[in-house]
Amino acid sequence: MGGLVATVSLPDLATFLVAAVILVGGALGVVLGRNPVHAALSLVATLLAVAVLFVEENAQFLAAVQIIVYTGAIVVLFLFVIMLLGIDRRERALVDQFRGQRFVALGLGALVLAEVLLLGTGHWTTGAHATTGALNRPLSNVAQLGRAIFTTYLLPFEITSALLVVAVVAAVVLARRFDAPHDDERTLEGDPAGDAGDESEVAGR
Amino acid sequence: MTIDGSWYLALAAVLFTIGAVGVLVRRNVLVMFMCIELMLNAANLTFVTFSRELNDIGGQVAVFFVLVVAAAEVVVGLGIIVAIYRHRVGATADDPHELRG
User: Fold this and answer.
1) Domain ranges for chain B
2) What is the value of pTM for the model shown?
3) CA-wise closest residue to A55 among B34, B10, B8
4) Interchain CB distance below 8 Å, B67 and A62
5) Most buried of A43, A169, B10, B61 (most Cβ within 10 A)?
6) Taking CB atoms and an 8 Å cutoff, what residues of chain B touch A134?
């Protein structure tokens, strides 16, 4: 890794450092947070920091999509599930399926990090330059991306639409209650009884 | 001049490591899922960095597809989680270890 400070302009450096701090802090918040809602909000911080880094790397369209899709749709979906199911109870964090699992996990994580940072002393980027389309300046980022997707990557793009249809069908099938009549009867029987109980309690006072 | 690409790659490596350790350490299914999203974002950051370094739009196209697949994955995964935990008490990953139909 070359010198960070020597050749870089101050705004770029400040943007990168602030985004990096928010990114790592948010990621640690996801892992260490006890409450799943706090973890989801930390995830938002991380995703926004990644969007800032995308802008810093001249990928403006991806930054916008990152904010719209990830923080606008995916995290909201996470929060919906957390709040609808009420899965904000404490997990049984101390019960490990395998003995010493978390120490092994931390050791493996440290090993991966050390390996990657060791590789960082050499050259990171090797390979052919601009095989599918150069990032030439006159064209805007959106125009370039659209041109690549609708010419070179047209078939994967079409397959993506099939994937989305499959995902929608799967979500509908998975979310369906298979024992719907039974559940409806139970809730119909259960609710008036509960209300009556409350009323009698109030009347008793 | 902009930041050297290796710094972005190192940052993405840190992010990926945090996500991987989170998947291994946490037992809450939803938090494990969020850690998978962290790892996907680390991969996206790497793709964009290589796209800039190699002067090639292909990396950004790959990120576009990763975003689509991540959205589909989250929809299906959260559907599975809702289906499993509708009649269960907790959200611990080791509870549904008996996979009977």
Assistant:
1) 5-99
2) 0.80
3) B8
4) yes
5) A43
6) 55-57
